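Action item from last meeting closed. Structure (493 res):
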């Protein structure tokens, strides 16, 4: 068995700190990799929620990062995160990480002006660990996630150049290419990277500094979170300016689909639901629906199809299409419930839709993990009409919870949902898929979903097939293990 030592480097981890799917992945992957024999530790910034979850922590080192990062007086702690079941290195630097607001932006959604330093420190600390900062545990592979960890591969390379000797190889995983961590060029000098790194073949991006590009350029291997997204980001329209670099590294890039953490998302044992249910015994789903209709003040009717959305409210998610289609959805006798937060204009528009028709439309603005479980369990359809979607998790939760996904054919959505058409009902159908990014295409697909809903036998067949899909983390974990094996072939004792 491969007992590779893997250092996961990321900015958030479920259940302690989560802004999106990245946290779900960071929370689930360590256990899945450990089941394959890997010895995993994570490196995280010391956000208050992370520090609060760290048990038995000891100070491993007082860190001496370059330049302005030193002013934060960072210390490296080591301890255990029981909520995540993983040992962790945490950078304790209150001046950087103990702030009101979110991990990346303040309460007004304004990115913190020193984000380049806050996350450069994360990458720098990863390279220190690879260089032997903890003599008792030196990683064989450094695995960074998204732009927050993008400088880890760059600092690894810089340290290797300085020492004349390679450190641990790195894997860099893109969870969302649109968020890149771009900063003014003047900040490059604060990072203490070799001057020649600020180049087109390096961290420079149209005259500015780009953390995502640093990860993509300096990592030994790249992955992203679905096979379709791995292809899409090599093209101009989804490459966010980095498609050329990604094309040049195509042979070192692969798509590994995220999984569902069955310890968190399993309707048969989910303590957050009013009644359990499963593919073989779906009766409890009706109870979940009726309880939710009561909770939200929707008309209580078992036979009324309930459509839902659980999402960050951003342009990426295509929610304006749903706003356009909503009147027709309701006219056709369906109900709609949304849980989300984000863009104030979208929040206001959905609120107005609910106020206009409270018996059929319910909207809860905010971030509410337990409610997300209850809503998906109660719903017949979960809609994810994204403009782009690296993997998407809510459609997978929908499949597991008997809420048929209605998705756009893009990214991970295209890889995980099979369209229900007459000829696929007895085959592989698990949901509804549309292609053009228009309200008309969405409306037509809603009509198809409603038509199938009226054919109860067929509906139950498709729903049961969806619930039996296996999106366990074991599949992804074995793919990551194979990559670690390529990167560090001599790590097994
Ligand atoms: P993204 O990472 O782009 O936000 P994903 O579908 O990959 O999209 O992951 C989103 C995760 O965040 C899922 O676990 C989803 O259930 C959760 N989520 C999104 N919005 C909310 C919310 N308002 N309340 C609770 N959970 C939410």
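Sequence:
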């Amino acid at each position: 068995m491969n007992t590779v030592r893997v250092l996961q480097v990321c900015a958030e981890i479920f259940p302690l700190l989560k802004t999106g799917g990245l946290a779900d992945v960071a929370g689930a992957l360590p256990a899945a990799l450990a089941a394959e024999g890997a010895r995993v530790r994570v490196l995280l910034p010391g956000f208050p929620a992370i520090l609060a979850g760290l048990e038995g922590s000891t100070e491993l080192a007082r860190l001496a990062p370059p330049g302005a990062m030193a002013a934060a007086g960072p210390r490296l702690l080591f301890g255990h995160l029981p909520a995540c079941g993983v040992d962790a290195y945490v950078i304790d630097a209150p001046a950087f990480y103990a702030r009101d607001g979110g991990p990346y932006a303040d309460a007004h959604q304004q990115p913190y002006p020193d984000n380049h330093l806050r996350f450069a420190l994360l990458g720098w600390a990863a390279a220190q660990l690879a260089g032997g900062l903890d003599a008792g545990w030196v990683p064989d592979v450094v695995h960074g996630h998204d732009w927050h960890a993008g400088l880890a591969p760059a600092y690894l390379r810089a340290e290797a150049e300085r020492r004349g000797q390679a450190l641990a190889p790195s894997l860099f995983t893109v969870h969302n290419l649109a968020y890149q961590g771009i900063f003014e060029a003047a900040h490059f000098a604060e990072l203490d990277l070799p001057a020649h790194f600020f180049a087109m073949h390096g961290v420079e991006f149209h005259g500015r500094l780009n953390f995502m590009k640093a990860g993509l350029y300096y990592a030994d291997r790249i992955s992203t979170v679905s096979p379709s997204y791995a292809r899409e980001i090599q093209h101009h329209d989804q490459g966010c300016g980095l498609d050329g670099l990604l094309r040049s590294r195509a042979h070192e890039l692969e798509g590994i689909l995220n999984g569902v953490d069955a310890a968190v998302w399993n309707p048969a044992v989910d303590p957050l639901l009013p009644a359990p249910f499963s593919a073989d015994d779906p009766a409890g789903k009706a109870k979940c629906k009726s309880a939710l209709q009561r909770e939200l003040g929707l008309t209580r009717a078992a036979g009324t199809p309930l459509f839902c959305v659980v999402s960050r409210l951003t342009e990426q998610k295509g929610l304006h299409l749903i706003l356009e289609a909503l009147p027709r959805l309701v006219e056709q006798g369906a109900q709609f419930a949304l849980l989300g937060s984000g863009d104030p204009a979208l929040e206001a528009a959905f609120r107005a839709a609910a106020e206009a028709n409270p018996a059929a439309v319910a909207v809860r603005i905010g971030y509410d993990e337990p409610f997300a479980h209850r809503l998906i369990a109660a719903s017949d359809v979960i809609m994810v009409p994204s403009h782009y979607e690296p993997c998407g998790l809510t459609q997978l939760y929908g499949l597991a919870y008997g809420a048929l996904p209605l998705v756009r054919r893009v990214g991970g959505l295209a890889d995980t949902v099979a369209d229900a058409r007459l000829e696929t009902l007895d085959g592989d159908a698990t949901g509804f898929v549309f292609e053009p990014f228009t309200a008309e295409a969405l409306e037509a697909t809603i009509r198809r979903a409603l038509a199938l809903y009226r054919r109860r036998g067929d509906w139950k067949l498709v729903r049961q097939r969806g619930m039996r899909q296996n999106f366990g983390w074991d599949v992804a974990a074995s793919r990551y293990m194979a990559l670690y094996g390529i990167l560090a072939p001599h790590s097994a004792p």
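Note appended to the action item: The first helix runs from residue 21 to 35.
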